[in-house]
Amino acid sequence: MSIWTxxxxxxxxxxxxxxxxxxxxxxxxxxxxxxxxxxxxxxxAMALAADPDFDNHAGCFFxxxxxxxxxxxxxxxxTERGQAAGGVRFWSYAALADLVNDGLxxxxxxxxxxxxxxxxWGGGKGIIAREHGRTxxxxxxxxxxxDYGRFMSGLSGCYVTAEDVGTRPEDMAAIFSxxxxxxxxxxxxxxxxxxxxxxxxxxxxxxxxxxAYCNNGTLAGKTIAMQGAGNVAVHMIDxxxxxxxxxxxxxxxxxxxxxxxxxxxxxxPVEFLQVAxxxxxxxxxxxxxxxxxAIGAILNPNTIPAIRAPIVCGAxxxxxxxxxxxxxxxxxxxxxxxxxxxxxxxGIVNCANEQYGxxxxxxxxxxxxxxxxxxxxxxxxxxxxxxAEQSGRPPATEAALLAxxxxxxxxxxxxxxxxSIIDSLIAGGWAHEA
Length: 434
Fold this sequence. Notes:
alpha/beta, Rossmann fold, 2 domains, 8-stranded mixed β-sheet, 6-stranded parallel β-sheet, globular
């Protein structure tokens, strides 16, 4: 079994065996090929380059935590608009290939999200490889996340991390204890806290824009099917009930998440269903809007033909398994797909403004939910849908083209400073410092 198809834990063992704690693969801007920090990781670099989601990423950084020994990762796509920004997820992967593919896809999507939102950030994503079969108490979690903070400090600010899947406010506080290159820290430490409420509001605004584009009225009386009933979904249900939806059906594999959600909505027209992992039957529900709120790659050739909703608009990242193929397939089936990186921007919006201080009812944040703001979710989605109608391309494809165009705009003050930091790390032998 190769390093690529073996577990993320095994990759850590390979680095240790070579006497390394760090590894780096980066696109070479001056000539074809890649910068590889050590020959021992060449098989990973070659497989990474062959990954269809590798898009000349500026840097893929790996480090073994000084205290915990966990594999820590940061994936940086583009930095013209500013430092790479995106959350760090704490997740278990069967193979290193799965981890890297997640990082590549998510970092590019974050750059697209930031660009469409008009934020002066680039695209980045962090991953901490959760070790198989290990129990994580509060003490171990704090150790792991302190290590991640040190990792961020070592990257000198080319990537700024935030909260994501598998993390919680206490974890962000632990990261903040060892770096300043993080956002979404708890309010008690001067941060903006959990962005779940804002993320939910943004997705609901996108639903309203999609309905308006289809001349299908408001959310009042509509039926919504939601895959995933976690933190963001609970806030979404609250927003939907305020808009007098007819019914919400939500499913999850996590019994505790479902119990928590049920407690929030006694007597409301909401049905909660527990499903087994891999059970995607809810996607076939007859409803007005389908909201994927759980895992990525959920929209694919196996699931799209069963969808009976005219609109798909949810909070999950990277909902399309293959961005080109599946966007076209949804269009062929007459389904309006709202690009996830347009609808679910509010988490990073909340985090992005944190560096400039925190304001209650921040007008700079509320502007993204304003229907009259050209760069807000509502108007931006209508712009993308109009462009798609004129070009004949799927909305997700049109959104990506617009996002990539915007992502190439250099930061008005700092230019492409993020790339300069990466170049400096390479020149200074970052991978061999630890």
